[in-house]
Specification:
The chain is of the alpha+beta class. It folds into two domains: 202 residues, no CATH class; 183 residues, no CATH class. Helix content is 27%, strand content 20%. A seven-stranded mixed β-barrel has the order 4-5-6-7-8-10-9. Strands 12-13-11-14-15 form a five-stranded mixed β-sheet. A hairpin with a 6-residue loop joins strand 1 and strand 2. The radius of gyration is 23 Å and the shape is globular.
């Protein structure tokens, strides 16, 4: 039951940007007076309709890093809904539970308000409870906040909800990244190097206000990015050729080998190695198409394979993607870690006539954060031509492509472009970008969780090479060592 008749306005100081923020409070559930909606506006006197900018390109508006300062995301959720989310996490820490909330995206002196969005906890092994400990409920006094990843589905509850065509957002805290740059740097490098398939992202200040709490909790600086969904595809229709194809997420073990075919499943289905996230033609058509791709990928040999893969993938773009992937030291990937962190998009519904695109995903454990996984013990110095298992029965997509001299030459060319003097991966070039980002976020990282409150130039504590540095120059600087390593291996 919804009632939109009671309006109360007020204002307070934004604790971070020190500007006046006007709030509108609206009681929406008649049978639950505790459940209120609180939405910020940047300038007093704005009416909601005037506060919302006219956004024609949502990606350009949302993910513009820096021209209007760091944007803010305010989330208002009732105590009842917040507690529901906490208890769902206690029951299953991989829960996909969503709860009702309102959000505002504040950029400069404009605020975009979206009513009744779906709020969820996100992440894989990095999922966390955002408040308290197991079994506890929200505490208005002395709450115990924790950094956690969040998802916002703008249109799950209200059809048509979006910001300029963007319907989903992910808010990701900088877990194990005291530099606050690893994934931001990686996605930025993809874009600068011409890999257009990566997601857009931006730094954002995140606030969450629960129930009748007098002030929102400041969760600090987050990475806000667009997940791979139908809206992502729609915004790139011209690039993909079509946005009505099939989008798959490959799980660990999804090596694209024949024995993995039974793992082609619906999303969240037990035993899934490949989960169908988006389709317009239905599961059966999508499965037949994916089966055709895996079968031909493994069965074809020689010139037949060379010509088939060239007509079913943009091989140049794929190799450019992999050059960046290796360049930033992404070890937790398709090649080295058994298909992990891989998205594939097929741009048609045809069982045999399609183009496949690999989409970059999950680059927080890069730039010197390494682990002894797969074929590697050091993702900074490891041979880029043997990044993962070299057996075609383990990683056929990369190994079979690089077996051809012309394709291998393309890969080598891109590695050299990144690593050579003046290249985007060099220390001098990288620090121009990283220095600006760190200067931008440094004054905003202190937050109400009390976590991750300093810029610290060390890799993740669980990694096997604690000596690497991102910013500090010297013989163990990631960019120095990585570019030297790439130049060495490409010369062999």
């Amino acid at each position: 039951m919804i009632l939109a008749a009671v309006l109360i306005t007020g204002c307070q100081k934004d604790p971070i940007i020190e500007t006046e923020v006007v709030y509108e409070t609206r009681q929406i559930h008649v049978d639950n007076p505790e459940d209120q909606v609180l939405s910020p506006f940047v300038a007093p006197g704005f009416e909601e309709g005037h506060a919302n900018p006219v956004v024609t390109d949502g990606a350009a508006y949302l993910f513009d890093n820096g021209t209007a300062g760091i944007p803010s995301v305010y989330i208002k959720v009732s105590a009842e809904q917040w507690n529901k989310l906490l208890l769902a996490y206690d029951k299953n820490n991989r829960t996909n539970e969503t709860v009702h909330a309102d959000m505002s995206f504040v950029k400069g002196e404009e605020a975009t308000v979206v009513r009744d969005v779906a709020l969820s906890i996100k992440g894989n092994t990095s999922r966390r409870r955002p408040e308290g400990s197991s079994g506890s409920l929200h505490q208005s006094e002395n709450p115990n906040w924790h950094h956690a990843h969040f998802g916002l589905s703008l249109n799950k509850y209200v059809e048509g909800n979006a910001i300029g065509g963007v319907r989903k957002l992910v808010l990701k805290w900088f877990k194990d990244d005291g530099n606050y740059v690893r994934e931001m740097y990686s996605y930025d490098l993809f874009r600068r190097f011409g890999v257009w398939t990566g997601p857009e992202d931006v730094y954002a200040k995140v606030y969450i206000q629960v129930g009748k709490d007098l002030e929102p909790a400041y969760f600090g600086i987050y990475q806000m990015y667009e997940p791979y969904d139908q809206a992502y595809l729609d915004r790139r229709t011209d690039r993909f050729g079509a946005a009505d194809g099939n989008l798959w997420e490959c799980r660990y073990g999804g090596k694209l080998t024949p024995e993995t075919l039974p793992g082609i499943k619906h999303i969240d289905e037990a035993g899934a190695l490949y989960e169908l996230n988006v389709t317009t033609g239905g599961f059966d058509k999508a499965k037949a198409q994916f089966t055709d791709f895996i079968t031909n990928l493994n069965a074809l040999e020689g010139s037949q394979f060379h010509d088939w893969i060239g007509s079913h993938m943009d091989v140049d773009l794929f190799l450019k993607t992999y050059a960046v992937n290796v360049g930033v030291g992404m070890w937790d990937d398709y090649w080295n870690n058994a298909g992990n962190n891989t998205f594939l998009y097929f741009n048609s519904q045809s069982a045999t006539d399609y183009h496949v695109y690999l989409l970059p995903h999950d680059y927080d454990n890069t730039l010197g954060t390494t682990s002894a996984v797969g074929a590697q013990t050091d993702a900074v110095t490891h041979n880029p031509y043997e990044w993962g298992p070299t057996d075609v029965t383990q990683s056929p997509l990369v190994n079979k492509i690089l077996a051809f001299d012309d394709y291998r030459a393309i890969y080598t060319k891109y590695l050299l472009e990144l690593a050579s003097e003046g290249g985007l991966l060099t220390y001098e070039s990288s620090m121009q970008r990283i220095g600006k980002w760190q200067e931008m976020v440094a004054v905003y990282i202190a937050n109400d969780t009390g976590e991750d409150m300093k810029l610290i130039d060390v890799p993740a504590s669980w990694g096997n090479h604690p000596e690497y540095r991102v910013v500090e120059d010297g013989e163990k600087n990631f960019f120095r060592v990585k570019t030297a390593s790439l130049l060495y291996w490409t010369a062999q």
